[in-house]
Description:
Layout: E1 9-16, E2 19-31, E3 34-39, H1 41-44, E4 55-61, E5 70-76, E6 78-79, E7 82-83, E8 86-90, E9 93-102, E10 133-138, E11 152-158, E12 171-176, E13 186-190, H2 193-196, E14 203-213, E15 228-233, H3 236-240
Antiparallel strand pairs: 1-2, 1-4, 2-3, 3-9, 4-5, 6-7, 8-9, 10-11, 10-13, 11-12, 12-15, 13-14, 14-15
Amino acid sequence: MIDSILLVATRITTFVQQQPLTNASGFFFARDERLFLVSSRHVLIDKPSRHFPDRIEIELHVDPANLAESISFSIPLYRHGRSLWRQGSDSAGDIDVAVIEIERSALPVPTLLGAFGPENLPNRCHHVEIGGSLLVVGFPLGFHDTLHHMPVVRQAVLASPWGLRFKGEGYFLTDARTHRGTSGAPVVMRMAADDAGSAGLPWLLLGVHSARLDVGSRDLELDEALGLNCVWYADILMTLTAG
């Protein structure tokens, strides 16, 4: 049996019509009977880099008995000129998280996937300690198990106090080695044994990986990169998937 977390993440490829643009990471989030794909907002649109895809493709497993069987599933980003995804903002500005709803009836039968839900979001009862061990589940540089179409997992630690908005923004920091293509990956922590026993997916979804951080004054020859990353708090998903 593989760990359920590996079926929650999916590789995203962005396109303009048939022209592939970039690779990224994403994951599934279910609320009530609705299913959403979650990723970084800049995966779907990024004006500074002139990144304007009109559709994305994700990989779906379609045979529970054979994980090597998968298909590419295309999702349009616009309909009648209007964007189909939802993105959020707060008092500090835009939040680099976006969700797009997937019609369950459009999925192939069978489809083998997992999804986080509201029960996987941390609350006041959960203790997330500084320096605590986290995992980033994604597709760095598009790298993955090309036979079984599975993500890879990178180790991370919590690098800023949990619950505090770093510099007033809606994210926290992790210390981890990450690459392009990891944008949109879920950042998770294993549930405590008492909580995991009643959960179908025994992981806490802490946030959505966005980007590496650096210092503008860093000497590129003398100073190594910080190795720090910003991760947007996952509670924004309750706002983006409401209604």
